[in-house]
């Protein structure tokens, strides 16, 4: 894939390997990776470009003990923003998170510690979430006298359902461990390092043809926004392209001549 050198970043650190797995690391641990306006601009820059640079999968992880403490409350407080100013901030958050969700490259979030407020909005824009034993999820906006502004009303409500999201916001309810998996906040809960498991998942996903992953990591989200009739039509168009690609032909040939893998429960 292309070199990551041209990126000029202060709050994110990037690295890649020969397989095209990119690590995007939130690198402001002294502020618990709180999202200031500049970090959001960096996320937009990174996730606008990575899909066109040959990235095969992304692991989004964090330095320090906490994944992300959400909106930078200090910056927000100091700036005393007007309503329209904060509305524009939210639009930038949406830009960043839409680039992630709809970008066509699998993003695996490696979670730990606090995944709260805007941190949960960031995590919910990834395609797969892996939690470790320290991970906890919350939407403390209600208690702070705030409201979600980075897409939680869409993505967190999608993950956990409207009733649970309202409960989280009204009461500050915290989810963790098995319960977090059960309600859909994360798909994996590991005993060891979520970074390591996220890398394994990224490597697995990166073995799929890029065109298949593009469809999985953009078409499904787009189709959720459509009527059932339109989604079914769009699905047939996407399947028409994906299911006739040379890479699928090769894999099907292997299945037919019995050299391809079988689906087994273990
Ligand atoms: C921060 C932030 C932040 C920490 N903005 N600076 N999010 C929240 O309501 C969560 C706010 N944060 C916390 O509840 C706690 O900081 C944590 C549970 C995440 C971590 O606790 P702890 O004891 O490890 O750290 P700390 O002592 O609270 O904070 C360490 C430093 O990080 C401290 O800075 P310092 O200069 O005094 O050392 C904190 O100020 C700083 N810090 N969290 C700014 N969030 C688009 S709308 C989205 C709306 C929301 O996201 S609302 C939810 C906001």
UniProtKB/TrEMBL annotation:
Pfam families for this protein: ECH_1
Keywords: Lyase
UniProt organism field: marine gamma proteobacterium HTCC2143
EC top class, as a word: lyase
Protein name according to UniProt: Enoyl-CoA hydratase
InterPro entries, A to Z: ClpP/crotonase-like_dom_sf, Enoyl-CoA_hydra/iso, Enoyl-CoA_hydra_C
A GO molecular-function descriptor: enoyl-CoA hydratase activity
Family of this protein: Belongs to the enoyl-CoA hydratase/isomerase family.
NCBIfam families named among the record's database cross-references: PRK08150.1
Entry's EC annotation: 4.2.1.17
GO biological process, one term: fatty acid beta-oxidation
Superkingdom of source: Bacteria
């Amino acid at each position: 894939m292309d070199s990551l050198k041209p990126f000029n970043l202060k709050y994110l650190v990037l690295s890649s390997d020969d397989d095209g797995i990119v690590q995007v690391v939130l690198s402001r641990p002294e502020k618990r990776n709180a999202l200031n306006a500049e970090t959001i601009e960096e996320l937009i820059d990174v996730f606008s470009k990575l899909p066109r640079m040959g990235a095969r999968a992304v692991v989004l992880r964090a330095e320090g003990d906490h994944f992300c403490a959400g909106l930078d409350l200090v910056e927000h407080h100091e700036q005393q923003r007007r309503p329209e100013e904060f509305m524009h901030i939210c639009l930038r958050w949406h830009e960043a998170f839409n680039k992630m969700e709809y970008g066509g490259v699998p993003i695996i979030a490696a979670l730990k510690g606090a995944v709260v407020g805007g941190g949960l909005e960031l995590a919910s824009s990834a395609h797969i979430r892996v939690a470790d034993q320290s991970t906890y999820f919350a939407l403390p906006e209600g208690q702070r006298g705030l409201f979600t502004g980075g897409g939680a009303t869409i993505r967190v409500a999608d993950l956990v359902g409207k009733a649970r999201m309202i409960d989280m916001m009204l009461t500050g309810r915290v989810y963790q461990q098995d319960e977090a998996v059960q309600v859909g906040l994360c798909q994996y809960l590991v005993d060891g390092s979520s970074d390591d498991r996220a890398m394994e998942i990224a490597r697995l996903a990166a073995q799929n043809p890029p065109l298949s992953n593009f469809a999985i990591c953009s078409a499904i989200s787009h189709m959720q926004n459509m009527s059932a009739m339109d989604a079914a039509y769009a699905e047939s168009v996407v399947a028409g392209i994906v299911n006739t690609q040379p890479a699928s032909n090769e894999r099907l040939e292997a299945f037919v001549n019995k050299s391809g893998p079988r689906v087994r429960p273990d």
